[in-house]
Amino acid sequence: MNTFQKSAAAINKVVLAAMRVPLVEKLIGGSTAQITYTGRKSGKTFTLPVSYRQKNDELFIRVALPQKKNWWRNFLNEGDRMRVKIRGIDRTGHAVSTRDDKGNVSVKVTLDPIG
């Protein structure tokens, strides 16, 4: 793990802990979600905070500094399942990551119906 990845992991732990505080969740919950997924190669479960925007049952996550991050690669091609906690509510969905011709990466999560 390089210095950037170590720093990001430490910051993610702080943000995830803060998101468990109801007042903080209310303040950042409309733009920050908690995602949980299983690594394709490792089989390990990972949880991290991400910024998102939502349109109906679709979430759009823009990956900042994608060349320094690996998590989004788990959702290339046909994608994979992901759990998402939005405003304190757990949802599941299918996530697919794409990279545009400028190198920008985004992940689209199509949420499963509730119920």
Summary tags:
21% helix; 2 helices; alpha+beta; single chain; 115 residues; 7-stranded antiparallel beta sheet; Pnp Oxidase, Chain A
Description:
21% of the residues lie in helices and 42% in strands. The chain is α+β, with helices and mostly antiparallel strands and 115 residues long. The protein has one domain: Electron Transport, Fmn-binding Protein, Chain A (Pnp Oxidase, Chain A). Strands 2-1-5-6-7-4-3 form a seven-stranded antiparallel beta sheet. A hairpin with a 6-residue loop joins strand 1 and strand 2. The model has no long low-confidence stretch (mean pLDDT 89).
How is the topology of this model organized?
Blueprint (H helix, E strand, L loop, with lengths): L2 H17 L2 H7 L3 E7 L6 E7 L1 E3 L2 E6 L16 E7 L2 E11 L5 E7 L4
